[in-house]
Every structure is written in structure tokens, then in C-alpha cells.
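Human: Not sure, check this?
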Amino acid sequence: MTVPRTICLGFLVVITVGTLLLMLPVATSGGTWNNPIVALFTATSAVCVTGLSVVDISTYFSFWGQLLILVLFQIGGLGYMTANTFLLLLLGRRFGLRDKIAIQQALDKKGLQGSAQLIQSIIATTLIFEITGTFLLLPVFAPDHGLSQGLWLSVFHSVSAWTNTGFGLFSDSFVRYQSTPLLNIVIAALIILGGIGHQVVLELYLWLRDRVLRRPERFVFSLNFKVATSTTLVLLALGTIAFTLTEIRNPQTLGSVGFGTKLMAAFFLSTVTRTAGFNSVDIGKLGQASLLIAIALMIIGGSPGGTAGGMKTTTLRVLTSCTKTILQGKEQVVMYQRQIPMALVLKAVGVAVGSIAVIMTTTTLIALSDPALDALQILFEAASAFATVGLSTGITGVLSEPAKLILVVTMYVGRVGVLLLMSAILGDPRPSSVNYADENLLVG
């Protein structure tokens, strides 16, 4: 039982338990036994922090069902190893070498020291931001729904945003709050900070602390921080501009609102397409150009160490830096005056190729099972499922049962990761003592 197998099986166990609990009559608003496919799809979507749903969870599930969904995507957002390790620490279990190795591989951590402290820091950061988001959202929901219901809505959407899940308790997501600045800012901030990675948030906190305390030492940001933040800011800006230009004349999305609301809605759309499945415009009414832009942003996703999916911002930067290196006639991939090891370059290539392969396979299989559906909508659904985004053009509920099961598998693969899943299936790689001769190959 290797660490990758432990992680993959751990997610399967949580999904199975969640499915069985969501099938109980107490979980549905009608008090009847739930459809197994609906329960499986919802549990997988929650644990894999995707947010896709074949039913309207605000009316289909009872309060207890919604609470269970919240627990599932909280566990999924933390990650199986993080949640399991924190539970063991609460129970007073000794933190052994195997646990440290598991955390190292699950969180892509360099050393084995400080693993327990890292888990505690992740949990503390999560609680701080989720509680803060709850109190900031309360003034938005309480006036319309009362204090108790407003508090529940604030908690649910704050946790859903921080974990980059995108599950909402409104049938139109946040379309009704399209022109509400407080909700748009809070939800977008939670999504960005939750998806950018714990290490980036921690470094930002340490930098702010040193600035406030006026410490003379200069704080040096890591390469991961520089790449993740710069790429995220560029993608947010480009997405906002692109969606504004493509939808500015569409009366069904941004064409009928003021310029300030246009920019706010475009920024919100640029944020959620890379990480979480909330929406303040009707995704099904977007033009084809906007759908293609959204697919590209979804495939890129968030950053490593966060709650977002996709092939990650750092993977994109490594690949673009490789292209820049080739065009400049150089042989070393360099970013911010740091050379990137060849092992990371190969990993980035593997992640990109694996991601594209899974998305195209999913699209093809759904097209075969549901030939009447539009190909672009199917591609959008496949990219959303794999990148654990949760946005949909509205076809999720009308998919056939085989297509829904295909999306279940895609969401699972997207959450655990292509390389981790292959490592779990194939086992630990064995080093080879054989070196082969070099030979040139025509490429490009």
C-alpha cells in the first residue's frame, strides 16, 4: 500500500460513505430514498470540490443533506491526507515516519520536518478565512433571509468559496447578486486565496507581518510565490478583459447592465472559471468565444497546494518558459533568475499531456453516449469536471446515466491528479541502471 494508493483509496472511501449517507431519506427534502446516481454524482462532486450537480441542491436536499454536502467538500478541500492526519492528531495518535512521508507527497513538501505543524497551520488558515468570510457575507444574506437562515447561507457559501467548490444554495447561483459589490469581492477573494495555495498565503502573511513590525531584514519570496501570484494576476486581468470584450454586446449576459457591473461581472467570471463553479451570469447564454476562453481558463486552473483543480498555473509557466527557452536558442529553463530542474519540466509536460488526454477522452465518450448534445457544450462540461470547476452550460441534469458516470470518473481523476493516479496504479517507479545512446529526432 503505497502513499499514492492510500490517497486514491482514501478519496474513494469518503465518496462511498458520502454516497450512502446522501441516499438516506433524511438527506432529501421529500423524505424519500435518494436516487443512487444522484447521490453518487453529488458526493463525488462535493469530495472532488467540483460543484457540478444533476439536481438543484437548494430544493432537492434537506438541511441535513446540505450539511453533509458541506462536510464532504470541506474534507475534499483540505485533501484526504490533511483531514485524516488532523483527525489523528486530535485523537492523540503519534505522528510516525509513514505519516510524514504521506504528507510530503500529498502536499509536495520538500522535507519531512514540521509536517504536523504544517497540517495545523493549514487547518488554522482555513478556519480563519472561512469564519471571516461568513461574517462578511452575513450583511448580504441576513436582510433578505433573516438572521438564522442568513447565517447558514453565509457559512455554506464561505466554505464553498474557500474550498473552490462552487456549490450554492440559490437556483441561479449569484445572478441575483450580480450588482452587489460586497458579495462579489468577498467570494472572489476567498476563491483566489483558497486556490492560490497555503504556502503563498503564508508567505504573504509573513511579509505583511515584517512590514507592520518594520523589521530590517528583507523578506525573500520563494519562486513558487512569484510564479503563482504573477500568473494568477495576469490570468485574472486577461480573463476580465476578454470576457468584457466578448460579452459587452450580449443582452443576455453583460449587454444590459451598467459599465461598472459589466467589469465586476467579467472579473467574477474570470475568477470562477479557473477554480469555482459560482456564476453571476447565465453560463448557458455566453457566446461561443466566451465559452472557449472559459474552457482555456478552466484547464489552467489554480495553483499547487491550494483547493483549485486544473493543470495549475506553475505548470503553465514552466511550459511557456520552455517555449521561450527554445525561441532564444538556450538549453536551460530559467524563471526569476532560477534554473528549473529537468525533472520538473518533464513533470509539467506529463501533467499537460495527461490533462488534455483525459478531457478529450471524456468529451469523446459523452459525445458517443449523448450524440444529440452540442460538441462545444460537452467539451465545456468535460473541462469543468476534470478541472473541478463546476460551471455548466445547463446540460448536466439532462445527461444520460452513462454520461453522468463518465463525469464521476473524470471528477475523481481531476481531484487526485493524473500523475498520482497513474503512480497508484503502476506502483513506485524502479530506478534503471541502463543508459541509452542519444539520437536526434525531427520535432515540430
